[in-house]
Design goal:
heterodimer; A: 150 residues; four-stranded mixed beta sheet; four-stranded antiparallel beta sheet; B: 83 residues; five-stranded mixed beta sheet; two-stranded antiparallel sheet
Chain lengths: 150, 83
Amino acid sequence: MKIQVQTEAFDLAAEVAALHRDNPKVGAVASFLGLVRDVNEGDGVNTLTLEHYPGMTEKALAEIVRDAFERWELLDATVIHRVGELHPTEAIVLVAVASAHRGEAFAACEFIMDYLKTRAPFWKKEVTPEGERWVEARESDEVAAAKWAR
Amino acid sequence: MKIDVLYFARLRETFGIGAEALELTSGTVADLLETLRRRGKPWSEELSGERAFRVAVNQDIAGPETTLNDRDEVAIFPPVTGG
């Protein structure tokens, strides 16, 4: 299991390869890549600045991944989330999950993203032509996370 | 008792402060919030409950009834928007 919060870019292919390269039991890796878009709520976005809570953020991510390991038969997982100043087309977040079969990998990958969006302390601020603004939390993200309640 | 209070994102900017040390008599998160609201605006507005915010104690999400202890780290922040 690998959890990282970093300013630097990451290499999707290298991260996915690291999940299965040395483990012949892995039959599936599902990955999600989140990217900065150039538009939000109808306005152009030039820059996205991500803030986090050092310590709690890493702890929250580790708890979410441990929860995924309790729900599904997983072999390994990687979560990398970038912070600092990002621009459209740049990657923000990677979630990649390795398992024997695709079902577990797909489900766990979606679960980790849904919980990350609603539970991990990160905050986005956008710079648009009209000025700076903090992104507001979305009700639809809470609905997505609620479907995993048990 | 002495606690550290951290503010993040929009609340850090609105309050104009990222962290402060506070001396409190014993109490809960609700008592701390009442102390902060008594400072007046913008504290009273942001922490009135009209606008959503979250509280963590020692890096775990906490509720108003959570008891505070000496040297606790309390964080107050807006709902999260990562990913």
